[in-house]
Amino acid sequence: MMDTIKRISGVNPRKCMKCGKCTASCPAFDEMEFHPHQFVDMVENGRIDQLMQSRGIDFCLSCFACVERCPRNVEPAKLIEAVRLAVVRQQGGDHLRPEAIPHLLDENLPQQAITAAFRKYRK
Amino acid sequence: MQERLKQKALELLENGTADRILGWKIGEFFYDLTPAVFKTRQEIQEEFVYSPFAGANLSKYLIAESRKGGKVAVFLKPCDSYSFTQLLKEHRIWRENVYVVGVQCGGMCDMEKLRAKGCEGVLSVGEDGENIVVETLYGTNVFPRAELLEDRCITCKSKKVVTFDELIGEQGTELESDRFSQVAQLEAMTSQERFAFWQKELSRCIRCNACRNVCPACSCEKCVFDNPGSGVRNKAAADSFEESLFHIIRAFHVTGRCTDCGECSRVCPQNIPLHLLNRKMIKDMNELYGTYQAGADPDTKPPLTDFTLDDEEPSIVHTRGGQ
Amino acid sequence: MSVNNEFQPTIVAFCCNWCSYAGADLSGTNRLQYPANVKIIRIPCSCRLNPMFILRAFQRGADGVILCGCHPGDCHYTTGNYYARRRMTLLFSMLDYLGIERDRTRVEWVSAAEGAKFAATMNDFAATIHKLGPNRRLEDLRCRKD
Amino acid sequence: MQRVGVFVCWCGSNIAATVDVEKVAEVLGQEPGVVFSTHYQYMCSQSGQELIQNAIREHSLTGVVVCSCSPRMHENTFRKTCEKAGLNPYMVEIANIREQCSWIHKNKEEATQKAVILGRAAIAKVHLNAPLTAGTSPVKKRALVIGGGIAGIQTALDIADAGFEVDIVEKEPTIGGKMTQIDKTFPTLDCAACILTPKMVDAAQNEKIKIYSYSEVQSVKGFVGNFRVTIKKKARYVDETKCTGCGLCTEKCPQKKVPNAFNLGLDQRRAIYIPFAQAVPKIATIDADYCTMLKTGKCGVCSKVCTAGAIDYKQTDRFIEEEYGAIVVATGFNPIKLDQYDEFAYSQSPDVVTSLEFERLMNAAGPTGGTLLRPSDGTHPKTIVFVQCVGSRCDDSKGKSYCSKICCMYTAKHAMLCREKYPDTDVYVFYIDVRTPGKNFDEFYRRAVEEYGVHYVKGMVGKVVPENGKLKVQASDLLGNRQLHIDADMVVLAAAIEPDKSARPLATMLTASMDTNDFFTEAHPKLRPVESPTAGIFLSGACQGPKDIPETVAQASAAAAKVIGLLAKDSLICNPCTAAPDELMCNGCSSCEKVCPYGAITYIDKEFRGPNRTTLVRRVAQVNPAVCQGCGACTVACPSGAMDLKGFSNKQIMAEVDAICR
Amino acid sequence: MTYSYFPGCTLKTKGKDLDIWGRASAEALGFHLQELDQWQCCGAVYPMAKDEIATRLSSVRALMAAGEAGQELVTLCSACHHVIKRVNRDMQTDETIRDRVSRYLGLQTPYAGETTVLHYLEVLRDRIGFDNLKQKVVNPLTGRKIGAYYGCMLLRPASEMGFDNPENPTILEDFIRAIGAEPVVYARRNECCGGYCTIKSKDYARKQVDAIMENARACGAQELITACPLCLYNLTENATDGLPVAYFTQLLAEALGVKEEQK
User: Fold this and answer.
1) Cβ of E48 and A64 within 8 Å?
2) Which of B35, D373, D590, E63 has the most beta carbons within 10 angstroms of its beta carbon?
3) What is the per-residue pLDDT across C49-75, written as a single tens digit (0 to 9) for each?
């Protein structure tokens, strides 16, 4: 599984020097039980299952602040995305069902929000 | 033209400008003009020749002649004058001992082309403006010069006499020529095709050294191929230091010094187009390091003894395209 | 010695004493591997490399020749590698023109600190030469007519 | 043919583990001309060297091949060994079977085979070696120090102490360098000016030391013992011999809006200025970029008030030529630009400062007179956040790959001083690691935490948002697994340090090598740390790598010791591997002269005997062996092969090629 | 000058104002946006996974269509720009992706990212020039204090987007200056507004938006402009007490006098 995550993401977690700048930059910190630096560490140490079960993976905003500010070019967002993909690619792993959509819509919600949600939360 | 040159030679000898005259005389055949030194009025009158076969480049002979004491006068065609200037740049010719008469040139003729015209029993060949007049046993033939020109003269790069003390005829100018078109053709081939081409050409080499001996740039006191100390001495292809390497090294040694006079190909008894090697280097230098014409002036630094900080990397050979 | 019928190329690496030879030493110090068929000849500066040496190597059976020198601007002798750069560019161009495989010759700038680059370069070059196969075209063009 | 002895070294197991040394010795023993071949555990040891010497005597060897480690390591050792046994030292060749064989190959057969081939190449070469005698060249007993910071000053003082003349070239109007801007020094907290300014004065008053301030090195020619240096004295528009340093002009100059570089632009100075009160030399300088007189030709106030008549608007750059035996580089460092790290809002708020700016804000001679005030509104900051490793320890695409080394300690110092002076401030330090190797360093850092109550947080700041006069700092606390949100008044960034920009062009002039970060490389990272690989060039201070003051001073003195060792010699032994022409073959064509970087080649007209008792005069090249450095550029430029390089001759190299390719 | 133009799905529906005024202003500024004939939705998120090919195809098709027309490809929506620009870079630099995409699309010659992708703002800055834009302004928005809201997708990752300094961008501020208004610089202009979570957690999105609004207001902004429909939606809908937010093209059209003409 660790190799799958590394392959999907193309990230080498060993480049991390544990400075915590990703976590310092993360706007979704409060919504995540594991924070970006922990993602990197846990992938490196093979604790993927725990990450896959965490609800935080759906809260990453893909804002790339962690990617931009990481001094070592580790790209934590790609790891989080890879873990999320590992989840939604599983049978029944979808996080969002088409039935739920109408309920979410409002008059002004742009298409891209839905499209993005579909891309992110289901396969 | 021959008469004007003869008169000039006599005049220079008689008014004391020169003790010796470097010119041409008939060799084995009428079309085989060979360089010669004339010391007396009689010699000039009897033997001095100038004809459309006076292709031999006299400049190289001045390395030795200019050091012999006294003054030597020489006739230099435009392309010879480039070689002469290049040798001056290399401090090989003692300029103060040389009196240069620049001779304008309409292009030299190729005996093979004359033969192809079906001329037999040729007695003499003369010039008449843009025509070549051939006297034969069977009468007089007149051909336009353009039809008989040597290949190197068809792509003549310049009619300018670079260095002279006196000029016979008008000063010419540098010409637009497509002398690199054959090189470009070769470049467009695949590597395998080029290899086959050169294998076919170079494998005919008999190492007679004619190319080297005639080349004004190959004027070393002792050639590396004759020098036991160089580690690469060899004569005929006795052991493994072969023709290709001889020609590669020769081409490399004259890179930036070769004026593209074309003598190497003219004298090759095997008709190997050796000038295509030198032209390739000239073309490359022009493209990579800016246009440079060896012998065009006495000052400009040759590309191989110069550099810029942002020269192309050797990998350009891989990346610039071609196959 | 092991009997190995697989093509084992002979590769000559000319290294300038100040940067690349030291870079080669550094890759040794760091135990970075590269093929044993790469043999290094030490020259004081890349500008000492006479084209004759390269041709000689090919003639005597080398399958690839590489020149390593200080990075442009870092030459121990200030300008040597600039001359080498021009000479090698023209030589390689001429060899290419004669139909010699382009990949048999290479120039790489390797500093004394680039042990890893040295090893990587040699590995890459050896792989390239291995792919090209034995050098045939720079052998005697006249004697050898197949 | 030489009588060659082959000596294969095991280097303990370094070589012997992967190379069958016995077999190498045996196979090489069969090579033509080899009359003796052996192997030994440590050829460089005393007994190994004796082994070689005995073999030279017993077997009348005329050539020696040592198969061992890199010639860069022990070539000299073995040359000396052989010399003692009566063999010319240049009859030794080394086959590098350690760095270039045993250490990079795992397969023993392969490695053994390669070692044999390398040995053969060395044997083939040594057969063509000729005894060489090194010439000597005189040493100019004067040193040049480039850079007048603490490193340069210390080096100069030490060299002068030993009785040699030494010049300092400093590009700023005063010597002193970065240390003049620093407030206190760790770990003792004594004031930087108090320990530096006496040294500056010492340097100025020392008869052996000459200071070229506001000057730069323009060009360097020559070689060890005989450098010829052109120094550019930049026009300061003030006659140095007349200016008394009274400072009246710097008070009267009407152009007041010049950013004060000494205070890093935190305040302003006049167009004519003396950087600070203790400047050495204390001479005014006109800043041509701002001076109204120089720009428009109207003003002249300074000239009017100067009673010494020192102002000279017509002054131009002057060039001075000097000769030196040795050159010391002491060009120092600078903090990096922070444009790339604006998540810390350095360019968006004046209250986000670099550590060096913070030094000025704490300094009694600084823009705030030593009271810590916010640059934005002049209030006392109550909460201060220090951020470590800004631009250091980065991936190459994101900043400097190295640790800047000094930041951990100066930040501890800053934090401690803040708490000491203003106990009501909250001080946070965000760190990745705290690196405090050094005498009394870790104790110092612990005091900051334990006695002074500085909050050290393992984590990093991710974003600084200036808002309503506060700096909202968002950071991570990795040990607490939380995100911190601090309303700070001031943020201090420990910016990475990098070599001064002048170092790169200087390195080119000196032909001294640099690493990819533009730090000068040392001749050996452990054993020759203060010498450049280029003979006669020495390194002092942070130009070689980040250093704190104690380390800088130590290295400065070490460099001085090396310089003194060089200048104490009357002459130097030259490299005998120089180019030499075979006059009989020389065309006199000047190709070699055009490519010689040292101007070592000249031409003479020489008479030769020709055939039939004639004589011929020919122009031939001459090489000055004291100037030639042996690069070999000329040998390839020479079409006739007349020019060859001793020790690396055409034949020798081709013999190696043949041996390798056969 | 004519550019190929990729509008994207949102600009055809909820984000019409971004599109309409962008195009109208282009004409006023002397360049033409030629809508690609058959564009498909870009997918709204860049596929970070290296093994996803299908999600890159629509971008590649758009890029190739522009390439065939011999034009540069212009986008207006930040999300589209982000996706297309990064996919283009994948095609340039990632051999595996390039090969797989080329095989998937059955290309004779692989597409290797030859097309240039420009955001509308980059066209203004690098092709038109803000000084020239300033010349064309007929209704300078004098006195208006406008904060630029960049969001994430135009700026990050800077190594791939190459748009502006990711931590202290200036392109929108320069734009604001060019149309005669006063730019207000505030630090949170490049912090995420939480738009992607708007359908997941309004509260969370609100927290982000409020922080941005507070920061912008504290720095003196009276209104915000953006290039992203999702940001605009989020900043408008999920703000507790927000500033008005508009698309930058709306103000551009206003300044160029295009709006009145069309009224």
Assistant:
1) no
2) E63
3) 999 999 989 888 899 999 999 988 778
In this structure, the answer to whether residues D559 and D583 fall within a common structural domain is no
Give how many domains chain A has, as a whole number.
1
Q: For B62-119, what is each residue's pLDDT tens digit?
A: 999 998 888 999 999 999 999 999 999 999 999 999 999 999 988 999 888 888 888 7
Whether chain E has a CB inside 8 Å of the CB on A93: the answer is no
CATH of domain E138-262: 3.40.50.11810
Domain end among D498, D526, D552: D498
How many beta-carbon pairs under 8 angstroms link B with C? Answer: 133
Q: Is the omega angle on the peptide bond into residue E157 within 30 degrees of 0, that is, cis?
A: yes
CB-CB neighbors (< 8 A) of D474 in chain A = 24-25
Over the stretch E150-189, which tens digit does the pLDDT of each residue have? 999 999 999 999 999 999 999 999 999 999 999 999 999 9
| DSSP structure string for D195-230 | HHHHHHHHHHH-TTEEEETTEEEEEEEEETTEEEEE
Task: Determine whether the interchain pair B240/C90 forms a contact, defined as Cβ–Cβ distance below 8 Å.
Answer: no
In D136-213, the DSSP E strands lie at 136-138, 142-146, 165-169, 184-185, 190-191, 209-212
Beta carbons of C142 and B232 less than 8 Å apart: no
Spatial separation of the C-alpha atoms in residues D237 and D215, rounded to whole Å: 13
| Helix orientation angle between D46-58 and D71-84, rounded to the nearest 10 degrees | 50
Same structural domain, D364 and D486: yes
pLDDT in tens, D420-464: 999 999 999 999 999 999 999 999 999 999 999 999 999 999 999
Task: Using a CB–CB cutoff of 8 Å, tell me whether D134 touches chain C.
Answer: no
Statement to judge: residues D294 and D385 lie in one domain:
no
> Beta strand pairing status for D461-467 and D455-458?
unpaired
Q: Would an 8 Å CB–CB cutoff place B231 in contact with chain D?
A: yes
Closest chain D residue to A74 measured between Cα atoms? D395
- Residues found in chain E: 263
Q: With CA atoms as reference, report the closest residue to B260 among B281, B239, B245.
A: B281
Q: Copy the structure tokens of residue E211.
A: 């922080």
Q: Is the ipTM of this complex over 0.95?
A: no
Q: Using the beta-carbon criterion (under 8 Å), do D397 and E191 form an inter-chain contact?
A: no
What is the domain-level CATH number for residue A24? 1.10.1060.10
Higher confidence at residue D324 or residue B232? D324
Nearest to E60 by CA among E21, E31, E88, E41: E88
Whether residues D392 and D486 share a domain: the answer is yes
Secondary structure (3-state) at C20: helix
Domain membership of residue D658 (yes or no) is no
Domain that holds residue D211: 142-234+317-332+500-567
B307–C contact, CB cutoff 8 A: yes
Q: D504 and D493 in one domain? A: no
Residue D508 sits in the same domain as residue D561: yes
How does DSSP classify residue E124? I
What is the least distance, in Å, from the CA of C27 to any CA of chain D? 7
Burial (CB count <10 Å: 0-12, 13-18, 19+), residue D383: middle
**What Cα–Cα distance (Å) separates residue D586 from each residue in B21, B221, E215?**
28, 7, 80
CATH label of the domain that carries residue D600? 3.30.70.3270
* Residues of A in Cβ contact (< 8 Å) with E48: 9, 62, 77-78, 81-82
Instruction: Give the CATH fold of the E2-120 domain.
Output: Glutathione S-transferase Yfyf (Class Pi); Chain A, domain 2 (1.20.1050)
Q: What is the CA radius of gyration of chain B?
A: 21
Q: Is C89 on the interface with D (CB under 8 A)?
A: no
Residue E168 in contact with partner chain D when CB distance is under 8 A = yes
All structural domains of chain B with their residue ranges = 2-108+155-168, 181-319
Work out how many domains chain D is built from and give that number.
5
Domains and CATH numbers, chain C: 11-132 (3.40.50.960)
For residues D123 and C3, what is the distance between their CA atoms, to the nearest angstrom? Answer: 26
- For chain A, say whether E183 makes contact (Cβ under 8 Å): no
Does D59 map to a domain?
A: yes
